[in-house]
């Protein structure tokens, strides 16, 4: 990969985007604003070329702003350029470390470029069409499951007060639950068909389902979240999911108990919550390890979080080495 000499930050809005180009000495070489459209993206790339910059030497960066930044990312990926999608919270606190007092689009673009220069975030690769579809289906299914949970909770509340709900509302809620159940089943079928349609995805899913507790639905969720990202270590993946421990200590004084930092992908953490419980029951090495943690008086939720992180380590190793899960390769727990 060509070494990056320039760093271009983009602050995306609905109609426009501001940009700022820095060199390695943090000198601003060019900044401005273009329409958030194909014409604006073309003007940006042509303007960079006209000023003598080699696009392959530029590291582009923008914050994750929902749908507004997708078109720009797609254009940069199509051109084979290095682009990183940043966590807005990380950029915000990075700005606080610089005593940032003013907020506007041009300064935000410069801050993003500065973050990219100093932190050198991981560049993402473009999602294949099948990966993009999988991501959309998995998130849509999760939205339906959340709606179903809310309707069931409302039903349980109504059951605690029998006769208080008008008949029409009772019928509508029953119909809504039946409709959601049908839609979730349809999405499950679509996800399974999509996995089966792609040799790479079906192979990865079959490898992940060899881990106790990881069923095909969870495998699809994991693959959707990891698509387009390349992690260098299992520890980096655990940090991405927010499953690293957060200790608060000063000198010999502890402030509270060590907990999960939870700064990361909450969708991935949620996807591994129940599989961790199943893995503890059906995977003997993990069960022994969890029992040792329990003997050290760790709280049940802390043990669950540790198992979730262990599952992510297994997922990383299995996908990296393209080998199914082998419980004999897990290290023996220490007394």
Q: Your description of this structure?
A:
- This protein has 335 residues and is of the alpha/beta class.
- It has three domains: 6-119, Nucleotidyltransferase, domain 5, CATH 3.30.420; 129-156 and 173-217, no CATH class; 233-329, no CATH class.
- Helix content is 56%, strand content 13%.
- The chain contains twelve helices and nine strands.
- The protein has helices at 38-50, 70-78, 88-97, 105-119, 129-159, 167-197, 199-208, 216-226, 234-240, 266-282, 284-295, 300-321, and strands at 6-12, 16-23, 28-35, 58-63, 82-86, 245-246, 249-250, 253-254, 259-260.
- The protein has a five-stranded mixed sheet with strand order 3-2-1-4-5. Strands 6-9 form a two-stranded antiparallel sheet. Strands 7-8 form a two-stranded antiparallel ribbon.
- α2 (70-78) links the parallel β4 (58-63) and β5 (82-86).
- α7 (199-208) crosses α8 (216-226), α8 packs antiparallel against α10 and α11 (284-295) runs antiparallel to α12.
- The radius of gyration is 24 Å and the shape is globular.
- The model has no long low-confidence stretch (mean pLDDT 91).
